[in-house]
Amino acid sequence: MKKAQDIMTTPVITVTSNTDIKELARLLTSKRIGGVPVVDDNGLLLGIVTETDLLFTEKPLHIPTFFTLLDSVLVFENPFKMDKELKKLTACTVADLYSSDCLTVVAETPIHEIAELMISKKVNLLPVIDEERRVIGIISRTNMLSLMV
């Protein structure tokens, strides 16, 4: 039975939270990849940043709908969501864009579990980590499709 270690890409291209978003865009474009793990100075996984996160910086600003009733302002948008969106729209570094709640697998994870995770959670990239949360590989949908060839 094949496992993550049999199909993962190594070495892994990573960035830090201090990486400039223009540098990130150049990296994703030049390497023709859809995202990269974000690591700290010790190489431990912080999260993941994708081309979709980068595209968010070009999204038009959505002003929430509100109205005044008896001298009170009622907002029809979650203020935390708006704050997060504003932060992404004005991002200068990866720290403002990356998702810290990314899914991961370990080297021993069976391929069928990886396929199920990618499909059910709608993810395109899965960092492969060791027991210390150090990134040792990455699995993309392309890696999974290579099993069919």
Distance between the termini: 17 Å
Determine the structural class based on helices, strands and strand pairing.
alpha+beta
Query: Any idea what the CATH superfamily is called?
Result: CBS-domain
Strand order in the sheet with the most strands? 5-6-7
Number of domains: 1
Provide the β-strand percentage band. 15-25%
Report the principal-axis shape: globular
The CATH class name reads Alpha Beta
Any idea what the CATH architecture is?
Answer: Roll
Number of helices: 6
Low-confidence stretches: none
Order of helices and strands: HHEEHEEHEHEEH
The CATH topology annotation reads as CBS-domain
Determine the fraction of residues in helical runs and give it as a percent range.
25-40%
Give the C-alpha Rg: 18 Å
Mean pLDDT: 84
Annotation, overall tally of beta strands: 7
The major beta sheet can be summarized as:
3 strands, mixed
How would you sum up this structure in a few lines?
By secondary structure, this protein is α+β, with helices and mostly antiparallel strands. It is 32% helix and 21% strand.
